[in-house]
Amino acid sequence: MDDDKIILANEASEALGRKIAHCLEIPFTTAQKKSFADGEIYHAFPDDMSSRDVIIIGATHNDRSHQELIDLIDGCHYYRAKSVNVVIPYLGYSTMEQAKPDRNEIPKGITRTRQIFRARPDFVAFIDLHSEAVLHAHRGDVQTLHIHTNELIVKKINELRLDSFVLVSPDYGRSKWVARLAGQLHAPHTAADKDRYAMDKTMVSQVASVVGGKIAIICDDMIRTGGSIIQTAIRCREAGAKDTILFATHLVLAGQAREKFKEHGIRKIIGADTYPGVENDELLDVFSVAPLVATALKRHFRAGR
Questions:
Q1: Pair (122, 37) in one structural domain
Q2: pTM greater than 0.90 (yes/no)
Q3: Distance of alpha carbon 200 from alpha carbon 183, whole angstroms
Q4: Do 168 and 178 form a contact (C-beta atoms < 8 A)?
Q5: Is the pLDDT of residue 186 over 50?
Q6: Is the C-alpha dihedral spanning 182, 187, 188, 194 positive or negative?
Q7: CA 80 → CA 32, 48, 52, distances in Å?
Q8: pLDDT at 157 over 90
Q9: The predicted structure's pLDDT at residue 167
Q10: Which residues constitute the domain of residue 16?
Q11: How far is CA 255 from CA 261, 270, 305, in A?
Q12: Does 112 lie in the same domain as 65?
């Protein structure tokens, strides 16, 4: 890529930003940042942003990271960047894209995404969204892209060299996506019967017997507390699965999730490096989305010529 391109990240996504910069063969630029005693945060760009195509990598998994991303976008406009291009590896509040009117809920998946769009980035890419509804939370003045990690997931599963396996969706809402993966892998698939009875509580009642004698690979877009996916793993074993492997793009693993996995005999969780701080260890097998993001960015800039 040419010298007019510059890449930076909010603090949360700096590690991924550096990987993407390496794939694009452009330098990674670290924004100068410090905190004052009263909690205010200072930012400064170490390089000239004017007339340059700026790429910002920024997960919005918490309020601080969300606001920092908006500050970086606005700062690029202030210094007259040629274009501002954003990649959001993990979108916070993405499961709250709908509101129940009788509860007066705020659909923060939509409202938070609108805040990002109102900062006027030229292009925003998201990775494995929980719902594509957020792609349309603007007035048509922002170019958006949904980057799917399917090809990386298929590659990773093939590398496991398993003799006999079945893909399992933890609920019917993700079953079409799991079915597409299964088609690429020439493998059978099924979906668990899951009901949600509270905001963060679910109950998985059964899994089809097609898992019998096979390794069940349970696939989802994210693992947050692990409750429903652990229940799905238990139901797979009850239905005769000889082992279970968990697969999710966004490894949030909030609260005591890791301890719960160990308690229930989950030995391997495979996922991407989209959520800040996720690294390989005895439980997690993490692959990087950096090559996929780099390819999408190259395609975006070629199309804009």
A1: yes
A2: yes
A3: 31
A4: yes
A5: yes
A6: negative
A7: 18, 9, 8
A8: yes
A9: 95
A10: 5-148+290-303
A11: 12, 19, 46
A12: yes
